[in-house]
Amino acid sequence: MGTGPTHRRQPVELRFRMANVLGNGAGVARGMAPSAHIAIYKVCWLNGCYSSDILAAMDVAIRDGVDVLSLSLGGFPIPLYDDSIAIGSFRAMEWGISVICAAGNNGPIQNSVANEAPWIATVGASTIDRKFPAIVRMGNGKILYGESMYPGNHLRSAGKELELVYVTGGDRGSEYCFAGSLPRAKVRGKMVVCDRGVNGRAEKGQAVKEAGGAAMILANTFLNQEDDSVDAHVLPATLIGFAESLHLKGYINSTRRPMARIEFGGTVIGKSRAPAVAQFSSRGPSLTNPSILKPDVIAPGVNIIAAWPQNLGPSSLPEDSRRVNFTVMSGTSMACPHVSGIAALIRSAYPKWTPAAIKSALMTTADITDHSGKPIMDGNKPAEIFAIGAGHVNPERAINPGLIYDIRPDEYITHLCTLGYTRSEVFTITHRNVSCHEIMQRNRGFSLNYPSMSVIFRHGMTRKKIKRRLTNVGSPNSIYSVEVMAPEGVKVRVKPRQLIFRHINQSLSYRVWFISRNKTGTGRMSFAQGHLTWVHSHQSFYKVRSPISVTWGYKQ
């Protein structure tokens, strides 16, 4: 959200034919949802985003009659009754507004996912198949792969062979290239290696530049592994992965006068596997709401070319005097608006759908394979369910999901009661004075009609039953049969195994039994994953998939 309680409305359909970042990634920029309008509300300032501002802006947006709220905001998981976004989004959901939120950038740590409320669509980040290669050619002839948004070899300062220097030791943070930490006598005219972390990536380049350095190699550490989020650096620079950084430092330490050059390769499309999970994307399972699988989906969030204001350079540093219409950014804050745009498209096609129906369409049609037909990867291994949720959004399929899992506002309140919330805590979120004791008496064995399934076997439990309700939004006289890939160590039984829909908007229910084959008394937490899919008997396009997560040994 951007300006105000006072705000601007502008059409998304504006096209920018010469979109690029300093000549890289050139193409046509266009809004996600043609003919949609954006209302922008400012809630963040230099010192952060206050809960009061977030709630005030959401209240104004509700009064303004928006259809989708896109919040590229979030931090760490907190209880829903302390979470201003969860509280404000509940009110928005009651008014039929879809709320799409960033999952957070605290990955790959488990339980780091934010914006966990079940009425929110929580979005993690994925890579795309566009690269900006900027290789390092070392003096020994070996090549290290890197990436950069720096303009390239046509600039005089780029592509030169320079002496390498990696300044370590002392307590000034010189290995991280803090401002003022680099001795000019050691780095002047040289290519400086800076470890990633602590301070901003572009800030490191500015520190090198101010110390007289001619170029920079930004080296991933163990924490960053092979993450390749690029920047519009203020001097010739490239980012290399952790494995490459070990080779580079080994070369520096074993060579009397190490040399290297950076060779910029422009923009390369379609040569790499994608999507894959972004290393920084926050992971589940949900810390405060483990019975709901989060994140819900992932979407493009790495090296995204985004519109940029004219009063700020592309690196966002105050010293950067360059002016551009677009810059490059990474984060779940970039993934979130991709999904918000798809939600707007679905809303335009089905104006009477609830936010839960729209989220169901996004989730049950998501992809779990990449462009090559292989499993979506997370680093060097297939992505787990707590990284991708239901999978990577697929706009073409989401607009025609066949079946949806719908949820009424009262069902969310019942779900809050299952979490053990007090009357006052439920009231804080919902502004409804309810008795959870009475609600639970009326709804024994309740499970929220969520598009994904999260099963927890606590100590001594071996069986779990859940119920789901599907609504036909595809064709009349449709028959769906169930297919199950059971999580390891679990037997899954579904009844009925076939759903016959005679009419549009007809709803049918089914039940699922999960029988654990594993012992639950070991004291150790363990996980398994699978999925349940309803497949149309005649139209193979309709495959309504629900991911399943199973947890043993959960301790609250």
Automatic annotation (TrEMBL):
Keyword Manganese in record: no
Keyword field: Glycoprotein, Hydrolase, Protease, Serine protease, Signal
Domain Peptidase S8/S53: 26-372
GO molecular function list: serine-type endopeptidase activity
A Pfam family this chain is assigned to: Peptidase_S8
Entry's Gene Ontology BP terms: proteolysis
Domain PA: 162-245
TM region positions: none
Domain Subtilisin-like protease fibronectin type-III: 448-550
CDD domains for this protein: PA_subtilisin_like
Alphabetized PROSITE patterns for the sequence: SUBTILASE, SUBTILASE_SER
Entries under PANTHER family matching the protein: PROPROTEIN CONVERTASE SUBTILISIN/KEXIN (PTHR10795)
Family classification: Belongs to the peptidase S8 family.
Name this polypeptide is given: Subtilisin-like protease SBT1.2
Organism name: Liquidambar formosana (Formosan gum)
